[in-house]
Design brief:
The chain is of the alpha+beta class. It is built from eleven helices and 15 strands. The radius of gyration is 24 Å and the shape is globular.
């Protein structure tokens, strides 16, 4: 089937095994695309079953997910099946539950952190004991799946924002993108009410995306009102995907700087198919990632990860944002759940151990540039794509922090320009 429709793949047709999907921007265009696809199928001698063919749908169910022009969302039937699962009584039951939820992990922020107590029960020679922590993780996993947001289709040419964070238990990242959308598609949301009010008052089109920092702004300027409110195009920040994983035993002994750098590195690698060759802003709540050029005698681990950062230059910017407004991934280290106990003092977040040596003068200069006070005063209600979806969490990313660009390594040091 791939060979039969090769001229049309990724233009207006997709093939998965024996499933053919034809997509178009308008009805007339869709008729033309269907004509080309059906002619190619007929000329190849392949027959189609009419009862299995569906035409003119605005959304379809594919591989357990709902796909529409607005993006990807979870299939309600699949989610309900997870909600109706009984409490696991044995390892096999737990494997079934985790197998069903991990498929939708891209919809769930900090998924690995949430279910980490459940994964502990799957370890070899681990005694089965369903504790209160396991019960909380099981319930939380079902709750966040129930409220999963709509994930956007990635749009080439629009800037990406990669938000990363780490705790002593897990790493997490959220890939988002500022995209245009018609106001009519926002009906029933707070953003639509805000736009409707501005349109009625004759005010300028309000911006739904705020700058990450005072010195850095990759958001497009607000446009003009169209003839009607619903036809007006605005820009919102939409989630492309979430990613998370639990830390390996050795990684839990890393310093805070190393864990944050690991989360950033793994986030870049994970989302490489989306961001390679595109403009990317890496947003972190760990200011040391901006000032890597002040480190001397950087260990091999950080030096190796620096090579990954360098691979994305010159399209990679690194921006610091305080943890208090880093809410789309920062709950990794702030959720009200005690981490598992470890013998190493490095696992205690109250002990600020840093293995890198920083020049005193550079450290003092960094402290003077700290945006913490400004950010506390500038914090406002965030209006991002999650904030305008009824089924989405009410967080979104922006801040007022300085920008730093990661440069090539010189003399064994990771440079920032």
């Amino acid at each position: 089937m791939q060979g039969v429709l090769a001229p049309y793949l990724w233009l207006f047709s997709l093939v998965y095994i024996d499933n053919i999907v034809v997509y178009s921007r308008s009805w007339n265009e869709h008729i033309d695309h269907l004509d080309k696809v059906l002619k190619a199928v007929i000329s190849s001698g392949i027959t189609l079953s009419p009862p299995k063919c569906h035409f003119g749908y605005t959304s379809i169910l594919l591989l357990g997910q709902k796909v529409s022009r607005l993006g990807f969302s979870t299939h309600h039937e699949k989610v309900r099946a997870v909600q109706e699962l009984a409490r696991p009584k044995r390892v096999l039951d737990l494997q079934t539950f985790l197998g069903m939820t991990v498929y939708f992990s891209t919809y769930i922020p900090y998924y690995s952190f949430i279910v980490s107590p459940l994964f502990e029960l799957l370890k070899k020679d681990h005694k089965w004991e369903w504790t209160a922590e396991c019960e909380s993780a099981w319930q939380r996993a079902k709750d966040v799946l129930q409220s999963a947001p709509v994930l956007a289709h990635a749009a080439a040419g629009n800037p990406y924002r990669l938000y990363t964070d780490a705790s002593d238990i897990a790493l997490g990242a959220c890939l988002q993108q500022v995209q245009p959308i018609r106001v009519g598609d926002l009906k029933g949301t707070r953003a639509y009410d805000r736009l409707n009010k501005a349109f009625g008052e004759g005010s300028a089109v309000p911006s739904l995306t705020l700058r990450i920092s005072n010195k850095f702004d990759d958001s497009p300027p607000p446009g003009q009102w169209a003839s009607t409110l619903d036809k007006t195009t605005v820009h919102v920040e939409r989630v492309i995907a979430y990613w998370s994983r639990t830390c390996k035993p050795a990684e839990r002994n890393y310093s805070a700087t190393e864990r944050e750098a690991l989360a950033a590195k793994d986030g870049l690698v994970r989302f490489q198919p989306f961001i390679e060759g595109e403009q990317v802003t890496l947003v972190t709540d760990h200011a040391a990632l901006q000032w890597a050029r002040t480190y001397e005698n950087t260990n091999r681990r950080l030096a190796a990860w620096g090579a990954v950062f360098a691979a994305y230059l010159p399209n990679l910017d690194i921006v610091h944002r305080a943890g208090r407004v880093h809410s789309n991934v920062d709950p990794l280290s702030r959720l009200p759940r005690e981490p598992p106990a470890h013998d190493s003092p490095l696992s205690d977040p109250s002990i600020p151990i840093v293995t890198d040596q920083v020049k005193p003068a550079a450290a003092e200069s960094a402290a003077e540039r700290s945006p913490a006070v400004k950010m506390a005063a500038a914090a406002t209600i965030i209006r991002s794509w999650e904030d305008v979806l009824d089924t989405a969490p009410s967080w979104g990313p922006f801040s007022n922090s300085p920008r730093r660009r990661l440069g090539p390594r010189r003399g064994g040091q990771i440079q920032v320009e």
